[in-house]
Design a protein that fits this description.
The protein has 6 helices and 20 strands. The protein is mainly β. The protein has 2 domains: 59 residues, Roll (SH3 type barrels); 200 residues, Alpha-Beta Complex (Fumarylacetoacetate hydrolase, domain 2), CATH 3.90.850.10. Strands 1, 2, 3, 4, 5, 6, 7, 8, 11, 12, 14 and 17 form a 12-stranded mixed sheet that branches. It has a 5-stranded mixed sheet with strand order 9-20-19-15-16, with no helix packed on it. Strands 13-10-18 form a 3-stranded antiparallel sheet. Strand 1 and strand 2 form a beta hairpin.
Length: 269
Amino acid sequence: MRIARFTTGSEPSYGVVTGEVDEFGQPAEDSVIVAIAGDPLYVGITLLDQEHRLSDVRLLAPVLPRSKVVGIGRNYAAHAAELGNDVPSEPLMFLKPNTSVVGPGDPIYYPRQTQDLHYEGELAVVIGRICRDVPAEQATDVIHGYTIANDVTARDLQRSDGQFTRAKGFDSFCPLGPWIETDLDPQHFIDGVRVQTHLNGEVVQDGSTADMIFDIPALIAHVSSVMTLLPGDVILTGTPEGVGPMQVDDEVEISIAGLGTLTNKVATR
């Protein structure tokens, strides 16, 4: 099930996207979104007698984390190597504030504090219930679904600060979307799903989730051993090799097979 958050110009609503999809999860032109009552994270799925053509609505970030976005650094060996870093012996965690979250089509703002702004296409896991100390073999019990993320990073600030908070925490530095897919199992990604990033139409990242050093169950187990996870929390699972700079007016498209495409443009504040 593809759950989206959307607006027709009034208050945001949630809905289920229906219709056929292609191999990348892209919906057919005649796809519709059927409204549901309330936030499905808290009240489940109750379909309403309201539907809209998907092309007539504006999609928003499919989840607004009440608490946090947990990033995982250097979870692909080739990406760690391209930045001259060693592979970590356990998941390398950092936090992005929930104020960094924006949705499909929203601008990524280029801060005046950086001269080296990078894209990082990633698979994101959305947590579905309060949990702590989750065994890896029970990870599916706490997953609400999956979406796409761009872990935008001010690379020069990351180097100069020696830690990640400022470099990854600016407003607009966590685009999410286009929706949450709830019907996939972590094994789907362990077996390998293609992750591609296009910059102005050119492929710059082309990796597979099979290359993750720590898989999704291991990440959930590790993060939840440190902090309580709440409904709507998001875990970013790391980026394949090929990260690089973005400039104002660049367009970034991140596609993950089965999940769709997340598109954002870079803008000045």
